[in-house]
Amino acid sequence: MQIEAQERDDVLLRRSAKGDEAAFAELYRRHQAPLYRFALRMSGNVWAAEEIVQDVFMTLIRDPKKFDAGRGALRSYLYGITRNRVMKHLERVPREWLHEEIDEEKASQAGPGFNVKTPAEWMELHERREQVRAAVLELPVEFREAVVLCGLEELSYEEAAQLLDCPVGTIRSRLHRGRALLLAKLEMLRDAPRRASASR
Amino acid sequence: MTCEEFELAGLDLETLREGDPVQIAAREHLRVCPRCAALHENWQTLQADLHAVGAETREAEAPARVEMRLRQEYRTRHKTLKARRVAVLAGWSLAAAAVIVAAVSWINWRKETQHGVVQQAAVGMQKATPAGHAGQGVNVNGTMPAGPEIGETLVASNDASEFTLLPGSLPGTLEDATVVRVQMQRGALDALGLTVNEERASDLIQVDLLVGDDGQPQALRLAQSAN
Fold it and tell me: How many whole angstroms separate alpha carbon A95 and alpha carbon A84?
């Protein structure tokens, strides 16, 4: 069967439930990347993110009737499952940092550090980003979600509120507090080496 | 604008449209408050850092092996479902066929059983009536008409030319009989050994009785109804 590019998710899901593998593949390709990124940024672990995405789509294969198109978009539904899986993972493994598969070359070219000239500058930039990543992972989950969606995935407040199924005001306040906490943590992380060298 | 108000609004300063009163007030506050200016600078740095960290994984997606595994699972699941559906369908078809066979067998068995009972009853009646002539009518000339089939209920014939032999009568004794027409209640036929419709037992009927030389009725026929 042929898949139209604009075919609605719920239509695809219905076809998938009836045994149309192409429809399932299309659904997977549409949604896997943002879900994977969300899981990766929330957990900081590529293996966990992979497992979570697999688990989410496995749920869709096993029980497609659980999704009710009347209650919201499939995207929000999948985000909801992903969030639950992430929470479960974080309960088991509260914090880890296994972002080893990130392409370092791409990482060094991203963002304002694109014009670094010397190895020392590159090292400093790299260290700073590591600190930011670590600080994001240190945030309480509800603030981390807001920072991941609005700060890293760069979604609007409205989109984030839709995905997290909460009011826009909640997203705004969580983001505000999340950023404040991030700043405080970064301050601490950056001051620690200075304090250590000063005490020597 | 106070510092507290700035902290609340300052985060979204860049997202506000140019000329927005909040933005103008916040910029004004930034010029006069060095603490908020430093805070704003920190926010901007953090924003840039977050953007950079986000950009590192902006293109990240699940490895191809995840899709492979999922498609494998999908195929297995739907193949199993299909096989299960076929098995269920086959099961129901077999069950339906078994029910039909059982029903047909039962109907046949019932028919055979009923036929056997009728035959047994007929044999019993043949034994009970002399020489198997019970119920057969004789005409006035003493010839034997074709009587009721074996097993049928003994009833008086409405045919005026035919007499119905009463139970216990012998056809041979009818040669010197006399025909006597009498009017009687239909219920009285019961006393002669005939089956009577109880609803019409009180009706008056005319009956021709074939009376033997011993004065006993040997056969009868219904002449015509009194009503």
Answer: 16
